[in-house]
Amino acid sequence: MSKIYYSKSHEYARVEGDIAYIGITDYAQKALGNVVYVDMPEQGDDITAGEEFGAVESVKAASDLFAPVSGAVIESNEQLIDNPRLINEDAMANWIIKVSLTDPSELDNLMDEEAYNAFCASESH
User: Fold this and answer.
1) pTM strictly above 0.90
2) Which of 122, 114, 110 shows the shortest CA–CA distance to 11?
3) Residue 124: in which H helix or E strand, if any?
4) Nearest to 42, CA basis, from 83, 98, 104
5) Percent of the chain with pLDDT over 90
6) Cβ contacts of residue 20 below 8 Å, gap of 6+?
7) Separation CA 85–CA 124 (nearest Å)
8) How much is the average pLDDT of 18-44?
9) Second label for 82, Cα 20 to 30 Å away, from 18, 38, 57, 89?
10) CA distance to 2, 40, 67, per residue, from 19 (Å)
């Protein structure tokens, strides 16, 4: 059973055990428009909660990616190299990196879906 957590910078972490699948939210991909490039860390890299780990570029803008949690990168979603638009098709299914969590307590700093939806509603008004 996975649980999804959200950050204020519009990344999500879908957690299954001690593994987190990290990507950008549907709200973020809609704001960006057509995604044309995803800059991702490589397997074996470490990411730190709150720090930049890559970027997503669209026809409109480039947006830095901020890690919602800390961990070691197990895998990057290589499908996004050739087809970054998968993020526009289904942002929640097309994660960017898969990490092994180093500090699961960091999840307490993130929002659940209800809180995230309220946050997005407050941002768009």
Assistant:
1) yes
2) 110
3) none
4) 98
5) 94
6) 13, 14, 68, 69, 71, 98, 99, 101
7) 24
8) 96
9) 18
10) 10, 17, 14
